[in-house]
Design goal:
By secondary structure, the chain is mostly helical. About 70% of the residues lie in helices and about 5% in strands. It has a two-stranded antiparallel ribbon.
């Protein structure tokens, strides 16, 4: 899945460079410029890609280390130990 996310990121980087809609004055739905709708689609795609990256590519050991550190800090403060 990691390679799928990397592929999506590369595809978004390439598709974001839209030179083909610069001079196009077409209105979709009677009011929306096609370039604006294209960028809205790119933004939604980027949000979905970021969600997939956090679900499948985020390093779990970082979260475990943080939770362990927070647990140790709360144990130290509940025992009355203070370094200050």
């Amino acid at each position: 899945m990691k390679y799928v996310v990397v592929g999506l990121i590369v595809a978004l980087l390439i598709l974001h460079q839209d030179i083909w809609f610069w001079e196009n004055g077409t209105l979709l739905f009677g009011f929306m410029p096609i370039g604006l709708l294209y960028h809205a689609g790119i933004s939604i795609s980027a949000a979905i890609t970021w969600y997939l990256a956090t679900q499948f590519c985020w390093p779990s050991h970082v979260e475990e280390e943080t939770l362990a550190a927070v647990g140790e800090a709360s144990e130290t403060s509940s025992k009355g130990g203070s370094d200050a």
